[in-house]
Amino acid sequence: MAKNYFPQAIQNLAESLARLPGIGPRSAERLTMAMFNWKSTDLQILAEQLCQLHEKVVVCENCGNLADTELCFICSDPRRDRALLCIVETFLQIPVIEKSSSFKGLYHVLGGRLAPLDGMGPENLNLQSLKKRINEDKVQEIILATSPDMEGQATAHFLADLFKDDDVTISRIALGIPVGADLSFADSASMAMAINQRREID
Ligand SMILES: [Zn+2]
Questions:
Q1: What radius of gyration, in Å, describes the C-alpha atoms of the chain?
Q2: What is the pLDDT of residue 1?
Q3: What is the spatial distance between Cα 25 and Cα 10, in angstroms, rounded to a whole number?
Q4: 174 Cα–ligand 1 center, Å
Q5: How far is the CA of 112 from the centre of ligand 1 (A)?
Q6: Which of these ranges, 25-39, 45-59, 60-74, 178-192, has the smallest mean pLDDT?
Q7: Distance 9 CA to ligand 1 centre (A)
Q8: Which among 21, 43, 69, 77 has the fewest CB atoms less than 10 Å away?
């Protein structure tokens, strides 16, 4: 067992921080020691902010994005084009597309993608409310912005098939982004190109 060089409270925090992406044990120790030098009031504010992540953040009841109130800032913005719906796998993709300034419609978060080997079937995706939105909100075009890897492509084809009889244009984002990339972390220039060069699915 590794020797413990730090008091228990410091070790505990370092172990929690080391669970974050990109933070190894050494960085976690450095961050913990840096925070140890903070004023108690600042540490209390940080503790409160951590608690609020789950207490204050809600899921937008319209699109599935993260929000402060029942509707996210996009769904509650009257300037957004409600006839245009961009379908994404996760809410992580929304800030990436927003930063690209290439899209002025609304979003719909699927909450995953089809991955039969991981037990993700159509019943696990947020499809009921998607159908309802397409029918009730007079949507004219849906843009399938699932990732350009195998499962993302399969999900896009499934959705294109699902809505082929609806009176709606179905397009797929173009590949401004590398094949196999995780769209949650795509750069915004590539994302803008992908949205602008989307093509209709026949
Ligand atoms: Zn929303």
A1: 21
A2: 44
A3: 12
A4: 24
A5: 17
A6: 178-192
A7: 40
A8: 21
